[in-house]
Write a structure and sequence with these properties.
Blueprint: H1 2-65, H2 69-80
């Protein structure tokens, strides 16, 4: 009788360990999939940060440019039709 009890106890322990191992394996697979999702999300965020840093650099360069005399003259000529005092404005003849 004791032999059967030991055998049953051993089988129960093996069954519990096997179930525990299966549960652990499934959980690890789930965590690996989640980790991969987080890695992809992180890469997307890092790419977006790089794009925004480049955009900020471009905007800063443009901010500096719009404060230059060259920009003011360009806008005055294009939008307002103004010319410098020493410039001669040639208009095509209307023939």
């Amino acid at each position: 009788m004791e032999h059967n009890t030991n055998k049953m106890a051993l089988i129960a322990v093996i069954a519990v360990v096997t179930i525990f191992g299966l549960v652990l394996g499934v959980r690890m697979k789930s965590l690996k999939a989640k980790e991969q999702q987080y890695i992809e999300k992180e890469q997307a965020i890092l790419a977006r940060v790089a794009e925004e840093e480049e955009r900020a650099k471009t905007l800063e360069e443009y901010r500096v440019y719009v404060q230059t005399k060259q920009y003011v003259e360009k806008v005055a000529k294009e939008k307002l039709g103004l010319v410098n005092p020493d410039e001669i404005l040639l208009k095509p003849s209307e023939e």
